[in-house]
Write the structure tokens for this entry.
Amino acid sequence: MPEARAILRYVRVPPRKARAVIDLIRGQPVPHALTTLKYTPRAAAKVVEKLLRSAVANAEQKEMGDSEAMWVSQAYVNGGPTFKRFQPRAMGRAFTIHKRTSHITVIVAAPEAGTAKRGRRAAATAARKTAATGKTASAKSSAKAAEHKHEHKHA
């Protein structure tokens, strides 16, 4: 599966706050992720939106196809260096202020030729279950309904 990435290093957003935004878009189709970021009222959302647009531009440069069909395959935040500053306090004390930085990575993927636009995860899960049990999900549920008798009907 072709992928394109964009990495933003040393951004002045704490990793904990950036992860809250990144978790919103991981696994989403690119158009949905961009809409989500546009209406997310957090400072990190603007940074991540710009980074996602960069990853899509990198994918288009690699001629991976239409950006409407791409999805966010991986997105993660690592901690960068911490700037330490001192805040003067009463009676000659000083408190440390930690200004944290992040390294943010977004990877977008284009769908393979045989997969549909949506439902890749569901199709993969169904394929794993079929391989493991030898039965499809509908055959499994009908077998479960047939193995006991009640006065009610099973869907």
